Amino acid sequence: MKIIIIGGVAGGATAAARIRRNDETAEIVLIERGKYISFANCGLPYHISGTITDREQLLVTSESTFTDRYRVVVRSHTEAIAIDRKSKVVRLRDLSSGDEFDESYDKLLLSPGAEPLRPKLPGIDSPRVFGLRNIPDLDRIMSHLQQNRARRAVVIGGGFIGIEVAENLNDKGISTTLVEGTDQILAPLDYEMAAIVHSHMRDKNVELYLEDRVDRFEDKDDHTVVYLSSGRRLQADIIVLAIGVRPETTLARGAALEIGTTGGIRVNEHLQSSDPDIYAVGDAIEVTQTICGKPALIPLAGPANRQGRMAADNIVFGNTRQYKGTLGTAILKAFDLAAGSTGLNEKQLRAADIPFLSCITHSGSHASYYPGAKQVSIKLLFSPDGRILGAQAVGADGVDKRVDVIATAIYGGLNVEDLSDLELAYAPPYGSAKDPVNMAGYVASNILNDSHELIDWRQLRDALELKDGKLQLIDVRTAEEFEFGSIPTARNIDLNQLREHLDELDPKQPLVLFCQVGIRGYIAYRILKQHGFTQIRNLSGGYKTYSWAVDKQSNPDIFDYEDLKRRDPAEIEADLSGSCPVSAAMLDPDTSGELHTLDAIGLQCPGPIMKTYKAMNALDAGELLEVTASDPAFGRDIRAWAKKTGNDLLSVKAEKGVVIVLLRKVAAAPISAAATPAAVKDRLTLVVFSDDLDKVMASMIIANGALAMGKPVSLFFTFWGLDVIRREDAPHLNKPMMDRMFSTMLPSDADHLNSISKMDMHGMGAKMIRKVMHDKGVETPGKLLHSLVEGGAQLIACQMSMDVMGIQEAELIDGVEIGGVAAFLGEAGESGTTLFI
Ligand code: FAD
C-alpha cells in the first residue's frame, strides 16, 4: 500500500512513524512545504528569550533520522498543490527548483495544520511585523532582534501564542505591550480567572491594552507606529501578530472534500474525510467538542498527535479505531503563573445552551505548613445533575496536575461527587490530604445537595449597583482584614462573633456573605441557615475573586518610547519594578540583626509607607524589618522614605506580584514627628480650602506621606475645607436658621464628601471615585485623617471661616485646634513647603 502524508510536523510525522511501526511493507511518502519536518512548534517562543538556548533543540527529528529509522521518503520544501481524487494522484511542486510532478497514492492523509490570520490592514507588510508559526518565522524574528536594538515590542493577540511571545520578549529585556481586542486575554478562561493573569502581567510590567484593536501600521525611519482603534499610537521596534489561526483547507477545498460549518475539513469518527481514501487530522479538521457534541475547531498539539496515530491505525488496519471528540484541555505558562483549562467555560456553555452551575476555590498547591505552597485557583463548571462540564485553574504551582485530573475525570465519566472521593497522591511537599481537586468536589457537591448556595462576583456587583438597600452584605473576615479593604457597603462581622450578632440581621431580607476565599463564608452560611435565615448566599471565590474581577484590567501608558530609546533597559526595568540599588547598604547589605516582618499586602499607597513608619518606630536600632506589599509603587516610595529618614534600605525585590523590602533601623534615624531644629525647617503646611473629594484625598495622602517621612505636618482647614474635619456624630446644636441651613447642605464628615473638582456629574463622580477607592483598598479620607491625628499632625480649624459657615467647635473631630491666620502664618513661616489645596 502506498500512503502519502501531507504535512510533516505534529499530526503528519506522528502518523508516518506509526504507519511504519504497523506495517513494514507500506510505501510512505511524507510531503512538507517547509524546510523542516517534525519541529517543535510549541517550543518556538522560548528560543526568543534564550530559555531554549539552542535552535537545533527545536528540530525534534531530522529528515535523515526519519528516513533511516522509518524508511519514509521525505520530500521537504515540496508543496502539494492539487489532489486528483479520481486518479488518486497528488500534484507536487519542488519549491527549490519550481519543478512539478505527480505522486500516486492508495491512501492519503492530510495534516496541513492551520494558517495564521493576517488581516489586510494598511502597513501590515512592514518588515517589522512578524508572525510565529514555524522555524523560518522564528529565524526572521531572531535575526531582526540581532540586527536592531529593539526596545519596545508590540504583540497583537492575547491568546496562548501571543502571551508566550510577550513573556519571552519581556524576558529578553524588551519593554513589551500586548494588545487584545476583547475585554480579556486567554479566551478558554472565564473573565474572573483571566483577571488573575491580567493582574500578574501588570505586575510584570507588561503594558496591557484590552478591548482595543489595531487599525494600521506606519513605518518610520527606525520604528513602526501601531495605530489602535482607541486612537492610541504605539511606537515599536518589533511587532508580532498572534491573532489566531484558521484551518489550512486550500488543498481539501480544491479537491472538493466536504468542509464543516466551522471551516475545518469534515471527518467521520474514523478521521476519514468525505472521500474514504483520504484521512485528515490536526488543526485542519473540524472535531466534535466532547461536552456539547457540537462541531468545533480546537487547534492543539495533543489532539493532532493522537489523531495522527489513530488515523495511521485506521489506514493500516481498516477503521478499527474511533475518535471520541476533543475536550480542549490546554495549559499555558504566563510568567510565574500557569493557566490551564479543560472542557467548556461559562461563555461556551451559554452559547451551547447547556445549564450549568459553578464554584471557585482557592487552595494551596501543597500543605500550607510545608514551605513554598502557592495558591491554586480552580473554577469548576458542572450540570445540575453533577456532570463535570469544564474546569479552569490558575496558579504558580500544581495547576497542570489539577487540570489533568479533572480532564481524566471527565473522560472517565466521573461526576463532581466523585471528585470529592478521588484518592490522590499526598505528602506535604506535593499536595494536601484534601487536594484542591477534592475541595472543588466538596464545594460542588454541597451546592448540589442544597447545603450551600453561591453568588458569583458579577451577580453581586450587579445587585450592589441596584442600590435598593435590601441586600445585607456581610464580610465575615477579621476586623484587620476588613481594614485592608472590603466590598463597598459591606458590614464586618467576624465569623467567630457571628452568633452574637444574629439579632442585628434581618432573616427575611437577602443576605450575601463573604470572606477571603469562601471557606469562612460557607461556615457562616451554615450557621445562618440553621438559625432560620433563608435568603443567604456565599460569594464564590470570596473577596479574592471579587477584587481581582472588579479591578482595572488593563495596564496602559506605562512606556514612553523616547524614554525607552534614551535610557538603559536595565535602568528602566529597575525603575518599573522598583528594584534598583539606591544605597551603599543595598550594594553590600549587612543582614545581621533581629528580623521583624510586616505584611502590607492589599494596602494601597500610602498605606504600606504608613505601616512601615509605625513598625520602624517600634524597633530598636539595628533591628531589621521585612515588608511585603502588593502596591507596585511601594518599591519606589520606600527608597525615598529610607533616604529621607536615614534608615538603611538593604534590598528591594519584585517577586511574583509582591514587593519585598528589607530595612534596618539606624540609631538616630529622624523618623519621629518630634522635630529636631533641622526637621522644623522641614515642616509641611497645607491649607485645605476645598472639600472636593479628590483635592482632599490629595492633601491627606501628601500629609500622611510627609508624616511618614518624619516631617512635622500642619493642616489649616478653612472655608469648605472645614467639612473635612466635621464629625459625623456631631451633637444637635441650637443654631440660627442660616447656620442650620449650611449645616444640612454640607457633607457631614470626611467620608461623606460629595463633590469632585472635575467630571462631578451632579455628585456621581464622587460616588464613582469612592467606589474605585474602596475596591482598590485605598483608605477613605476619614481613615487618612485619623492617621494624621494619630501620627501627631497639627490640625488647625480657621476661626474666621467657622464663624462665617456657622460651624461650632463641638462639631469638629477630636484633636483639632482652633486658630486664626496668625496660627497659620506661624506654621507657614517655619515650613519648608506650604501648599494651598
Ligand atoms: P502542523 O504541526 O502545523 O503541521 C502542518 C504542516 O503542514 C506545516 O509544517 C505546513 O508547512 C505543512 N503544509 C501545509 N500545507 C501543505 C501543503 N499543501 N503541502 C505540503 N505541506 C503543507 N499546541 C499545544 O497543544 N500546546 C502548546 O503549547 C502549543 N504551542 C504552540 C506554539 C506555537 C508558536 C505554535 C505555532 C503552535 C502551538 N501549538 C500548541 C499548536 C500546535 O503546534 C498545533 O496544534 C499542532 O502543531 C497541529 O498539528 P498539525 O499536524 O495539524 O499541523
Describe this structure in words.
This protein is of the alpha/beta class and 837 residues long. It contains 28 helices and 40 strands. It has a five-stranded parallel sheet. The protein has a five-stranded parallel sheet with strand order 9-16-10-11-12, with helices on one face. Helix 6 packs across helix 16 (542-550). The longest helix has 17 residues, at 301-317. The chain is elongated and about 105 Å long. The termini are far apart. The protein binds flavin-adenine dinucleotide. Residues 6-7, 9-12, 31-34, 41-42, 44-45, 79-80, 111-113, 132-134, 161, 248, 251, 282-284, 299-302, 304 line the site of flavin-adenine dinucleotide.
Would you spell out the secondary-structure blueprint of this structure?
Elements: E1 2-6, H1 10-22, E2 27-31, H2 45-49, H3 63-70, E3 73-75, E4 78-84, E5 89-94, E6 100-104, E7 107-110, E8 114-116, E9 129-130, H4 135-147, E10 152-156, H5 160-171, E11 175-179, H6 191-203, E12 207-209, E13 214-219, E14 224-228, E15 233-236, E16 238-241, E17 245-247, H7 250-254, E18 265-266, E19 278-280, E20 285-288, E21 295-296, H8 301-317, E22 330-334, E23 337-343, H9 346-351, E24 357-364, E25 375-382, E26 388-395, H10 399-411, H11 416-421, H12 436-448, E27 454-455, H13 457-466, E28 472-475, H14 479-483, E29 491-492, E30 511-514, H15 519-530, E31 536-539, H16 542-550, H17 561-566, H18 569-577, H19 584-587, E32 595-600, H20 607-617, E33 624-629, H21 634-645, E34 648-655, E35 658-664, H22 677-681, E36 683-688, H23 693-708, E37 713-717, H24 737-745, H25 764-775, H26 781-790, E38 794-798, H27 799-805, E39 816-819, H28 821-829, E40 831-836
Parallel strand pairs: 1-2, 1-7, 2-3, 7-19, 9-16, 10-11, 10-16, 11-12, 18-20, 27-31, 28-29, 28-30, 30-31, 32-33, 36-37, 36-40, 37-38, 38-39
Antiparallel strand pairs: 4-5, 5-6, 8-17, 13-14, 14-15, 20-21, 22-23, 23-26, 24-25, 25-26, 33-35, 34-35
Helix pairs in contact: 1-8, 6-16, 20-23, 23-26
